[in-house]
Design a protein that fits this description.
Helix content of chain A: 40-55%
CATH topology of the largest domain in chain B: MetI-like fold
Oligomer: heterodimer
Helix content of chain B: over 70%
Shape of chain B: globular
Number of helices of chain B: 23
Largest sheet of chain B: 2 strands, antiparallel
Number of strands of chain B: 4
Shape of chain A: globular
Largest sheet of chain A: 6 strands, mixed
Largest interface: A-B, 46 and 43 residues
CATH architecture of the largest domain in chain A: 3-Layer(aba) Sandwich
Order of helices and strands of chain B: HHHHHHHHEEHHHHHHHHHHHHHEEHH
CATH class of the largest domain in chain B: Mainly Alpha
Distance between the termini of chain B: 33 Å
CATH topology of the largest domain in chain A: Rossmann fold
Structural class of chain A: alpha/beta
């Protein structure tokens, strides 16, 4: 290990300013030290600030407080020696594969002959030979992301940043790209010294990383660090691999339920809870799946995730919403239906709606609050902006909007109150 | 052009001289050579007259012999392309500045919006005096004035389109460009321009159509008591009208048709087909535009060599540009930012002050209350006319547009025809209108009005066709499956689907009609003049009389009306349509 670390992130904090002049904290107290030969995973749900951290390291944004140093130098703009692979590929559709790869070298004023040599080499390494003159629109998603990799490798970076590089690909393609990447990495065929991988896929993190930093939300921060010492190539079915996946699930669900418990202890903060946009169909679907055989009312979350082909980003919000409405309990990486949840699974639609309405108004403080306001007013109507303003005391405008939409969709299913989007009005009447 | 030749695979970034000429000559080389040399010869001939003294122009009156038409057409086309080149230059600078500097954008974007609404036609006699003073006693001055007039009809929507594209470059592409250290110059040519090109080219086509309308007005310019007629189709038409020569009008229409067809096939079709390959939406789907001329150009090694040279130039300039030193973001910008902010505010205040002083001197001091009332009254008359015409045009073209848009075959025929009709200057219909009005002693206030919407109604048709053809097939199938037909189909399926498109078209048509009023409300055929009451006729008369105070008053009133109507009627309608009816 070198005296000077490859990368050092010290006590970083990042705020975005809101339109009303307030500030929204997305990242707080982040520490990261990276040495040569490591793949570090940043694992967390959307909104946990992991992509923001990646952009701070890339020099695409600057921290509000704290420091990012690369080889002892502060990062105050895109640094030479740090290259990035993007989630949506971000390759230029009007350039051929070759031109896309060569672009980064042209920007660095590398002599043409060398551009050619290095580009062709990178194209070769990454498995794109034969595609040099193709345009991105002629390529499949997997091939497009390979262009993204080749473009990053050709500038010979010391650190490769990867922002959920496989999440826009189908399962099979993603797996091929992952193993190809790991092969190149382990054989030392890529000129890179360290990798930072942002992901919300637990198995991907365990498969690829030497060290996983688990991120929590509100504000984004590092919850825990989990070293992965399994030898490469790793086998997903290996019991120690499964144990590690299970452990991370436990870690992440424990924190999640802790956050909810807090909102119960302080009922005044209740309406300020951010609500995920989870459709009532998904909620019913998960309840039914857990209630049915082989789970019979209790299930292991990793098992459910792989059975349903759901990423944690999709599964956790559903599970947590069920927990919030007391349809289920989530703890220790398991989900267990409550009595209400079990009866919900076994009744017909009308009865379901009644149960749902009861749980919604009892356990979702915002829904109860809106209903109370509508009940109290003689007109039984209220403007959306009234509630938005209230929510914005606790969260960003975007989150407030999303939270309100979530409540509206649940309330519509429960027939608890109505909402007219055209006039942005809540009311008690349902259209006849 | 894009580099598609398969043999160039490994040479993708290198230009080897004559690599394209491995076979000595292909027949496409011959075709290309002839075209290129021909174009140069024509240009040289047409520009020869620029430095001649004005007196010579006056000594050689315009001939109505059709034999001169090819030359006139070449000169007019040259003017239009000169205007286009200026517009592109304006677009690349003004729009880029507006998009890159938040502070400048606050002023530049609304300014563009207003410029778009100002009836430039009325300004021609003002700008002519200015340009004539630049090159006194030379044809060049009048040429510059004409080109400027054409420029003002083309530039604004191109700049707007480019500005909007610059603001919508996907965030990840911008991040990629930054993290791979592209210099601002490289970013402009390799990211921003390619991203903006499809929209820009579409708007350039619209601009060319709009430009024809101005050509007629700008080539034959009244200055004081004389009339400068630059050789061109516009002057030819003006002379034909003055001499009541119907046959000459017919020849002019034919020539225009040929010219429009030529640049459509040789320039815009290839551009559209080429630019389709640059589109950001990467999934190939549906019908891709094709162009025989593009195929010819690609196959011709000469032209492919030229395009390679162009690419090499872009690369070379990128190379020669200084490497962007990543400026330390935190260090010391606060003080200088404050200073430049102060300079900016002072400049804005000074500009506003000067503008207010000018307006006060020309309008407020010299106008009486009754002047003002008269102008506002006339503006209201024109406003009623525009709204009624838009309503009538909508009733006619929306159903037809939907009908055409759902039939791709028909669309391919109707689109170019409508494009030609959009370029058709209203002046060409003066003979018919005046003949009819005089013969049956019709009321000009009503029967001159259709001329106003003659060129602009097509924007409604274009957009409705586009909307109908963009309607998802499954939606139509669903409607058919549930037997939704007749009025219910129009009310619940077709009209909502095309509504956002219709509004876009109607906005353009409305703005254009105001401008056209200046030409259409005062029609003449030889010595017969027919006049409708309206702001357009007011401005046209003031222009003819060289009464600058009334010109400015009229134009200012029209601008205020157009901007107000846009802001308080069309804009809310547009956003409502976007929110409510946009599919997907």
């Amino acid at each position: 290990m070198n005296a000077v670390p490859l990368l050092e992130v010290h006590d970083v904090r990042k705020c975005f300013s809101k339109a009303d002049g307030g500030e929204h904290l997305v990242l707080d107290g982040v520490e990261l030290r990276m040495s040569e030969g490591e793949i570090v995973g940043l694992l967390g749900r959307s909104g946990s600030g992991k992509s923001t951290l990646l952009r701070l390291i890339a020099g695409l944004a600057s921290p509000t407080a704290g420091s990012v140093t690369y080889l002892g130098q502060p990062v105050d703009g895109p640094a030479r020696g740090i290259a990035m692979v993007f989630q949506s590929f971000a390759i230029f559709p009007w350039l051929t594969v070759f031109e896309n790869v060569a672009l980064g070298l042209q920007a660095l004023r590398v002599p043409p002959a060398e551009i050619r040599r290095r580009s062709l080499q990178a194209i070769d390494v990454i498995g794109l030979d034969g595609f040099e003159s193709a345009y991105p629109r002629e390529l499949s998603g997997g091939m497009r992301q390979r262009v993204g990799f080749a473009r990053a490798l050709v500038v010979h970076p010391n650190i490769l940043l990867m922002d959920e590089p496989f999440s826009a690909l189908d399962v099979l393609t993603a797996e091929t790209l992952r193993t190809d990447f790991l092969d190149l990495w382990c054989e030392g065929r890529m000129p890179i010294k360290g990798v930072i991988l942002v992901t919300h896929n637990i198995e991907e993190a365990v498969l690829m990383c030497d060290r996983i930093l688990v991120f929590g939300s509100n504000p984004g921060r590092i919850l825990t660090e989990i070293p992965v010492s399994l030898p490469q190539p790793r086998n997903r079915l290996d019991p120690s691999f499964r144990a590690l996946v299970e452990r991370i699930y436990v870690e992440m669900t424990a924190r999640a339920s802790g956050a909810n418990a807090r909102s119960e202890l302080f009922p005044g903060l209740g309406i300020g809870t951010r609500l995920p946009r989870v459709s009532s169909n998904l909620l019913s679907g998960l309840v039914e799946t857990v209630a049915a055989t082989p789970f019979n009312g209790a299930a292991d979350l990793p098992k459910i995730a792989s059975d349903l082909q759901m990423e944690i980003d999709e599964l956790f919000p559903v599970a947590e919403t069920l927990q919030m409405m007391r349809f289920a309990e989530v703890a220790g990486g398991d989900i267990r239906l409550t009595d209400v949840g079990l009866s919900f699974a076994n009744v017909a639609v009308d009865e379901r709606k009644k149960i749902f309405a009861r749980q919604l108004l009892n356990y979702v403080p915002l829904a109860a609050h809106i209903r109370r306001v509508l009940d109290e007013r003689p007109s039984h109507t209220a403007r959306k902006s009234r509630f938005l303003d209230e929510l914005e005391d606790y969260m960003s405008e975007e989150e407030a909007e999303q939270t309100l939409r979530a409540v509206v969709s649940w309330a519509r299913y429960a027939e608890a109150f109505a909402y007219d989007d055209e006039n942005a009005m809540f009311s008690l009447e349902n259209p006849s | 052009m894009s580099q598609t030749a398969p043999t160039l695979r490994t040479d993708a970034t290198r230009v080897t001289p004559f690599a394209f000429a491995r076979t000595l000559v292909t027949r496409w080389d011959l075709v290309a050579l002839l075209i290129v040399v021909g174009v140069f010869a024509l240009l040289a001939d047409a520009s020869r007259g620029l430095l001649e003294p004005l007196a010579k122009l006056e000594a050689t009156p315009l001939s109505l012999e059709p034999i001169h038409l090819p030359e006139y057409a070449a000169r007019t086309t040259l003017r239009m392309f000169a205007g286009l080149a200026l517009s592109l230059l304006f677009t690349f600078t003004y729009a880029t500045w507006a998009a890159k500097s938040e502070r400048a954008g606050k002023l530049l974007v609304p300014a563009l919006d207003i410029l778009q609404s100002v009836p430039i036609l009325g300004f021609i006699s003002v700008t002519v005096v200015f340009f004539m003073s630049l090159a006194p006693e030379r044809v060049l001055g009048a040429e510059l004035a004409a080109i400027f007039a054409i420029f003002t009809s083309q530039a604004w929507n191109m700049a707007f389109s480019f500005y909007q594209s610059l603001r919508t470059v996907p965030a990840e592409l911008q991040e990629a460009a930054r993290s791979f250290h592209l210099s601002p110059w490289m970013r402009f040519w390799q990211l921003e321009v390619p991203f903006a090109l499809p929209g820009l080219i579409w708007n350039t086509m619209m601009s060319m159509s709009g430009g024809w309308f101005f050509v007629v007005a700008s080539e034959s310019i009244p200055v004081g008591h004389t009339n400068i007629a630059l050789p061109g189709i516009g002057s030819y038409i003006a002379a034909a009208i003055a001499q009541r020569d119907l046959q000459a009008i017919g020849w002019a229409i034919l020539t225009m048709l040929v010219v429009i067809l030529a640049y459509d096939q040789l320039l815009f079709r290839p551009l559209v087909a080429w630019v389709d390959g640059l589109r950001f939406e990467q999934d190939p789907g549906g019908h891709r535009p094709s162009s025989w001329a593009l195929t010819a150009m690609r196959r011709s090694r000469l032209i492919s060599g030229l395009t390679h040279t162009f690419y090499a130039a872009v690369r070379w300039t990128s190379w020669a540009m200084p490497i962007p030193s990543t400026p330390p973001r935190s260090a010391a910008p606060a003080a200088s930012a404050q200073r430049s902010g102060f300079v900016w505010s002072v400049a804005v205040v000074a500009l506003v002050g000067a503008a207010v002083a000018c307006i006060a001197r020309i309008i407020v001091v010299q106008s009486s209350m009754s002047d003002l009332l008269e102008v506002v009254g006339l503006a209201l008359a024109t406003m009623v006319r525009v709204f009624v015409l838009i309503a009538v045009a909508s009733l006619v073209w929306v159903p037809i547009g939907v009908w055409v848009g759902l039939r791709p075959r028909l669309m391919e025929i109707v689109q170019p025809v409508a494009q030609f009709l959009a370029a058709f200057p209203a002046n060409l219909l003066f003979p018919i209108a005046i003949f009819a009005i005089v013969k049956w002693s019709l009321h000009p206030d009503i029967w001159l009005s259709p001329l106003m919407i003659l060129g602009t109604q097509w924007y409604i048709l274009f957009n409705v066709i586009a909307g109908a053809s963009a309607m998802p097939g499954e939606l139509r199938n669903a409607a058919a499956n549930f037997n939704v037909g007749g009025w219910l189909w129009w009310k619940k399926v077709a009209l909502p689907a095309v509504f956002p498109f219709y509004v876009t078209g109607a906005i353009t048509a409305s703005g254009g009609s105001w401008n056209a009023a200046i030409v259409a409300e005062l029609a003449s055929w030889g010595d017969t003049h027919v006049k409708a009451h309206g702001l357009g006729a007011y401005i046209a008369e003031a222009t003819a009389a060289g009464d600058f105070h009334r010109i400015v008053l009229g134009i200012a009133t029209m601008s205020v009306f157009v901007v107000t109507i846009n802001r308080f009627f069309w804009r809310p309608l547009y956003f409502y349509a976007e929110r409510r009816f946009r599919l997907g």
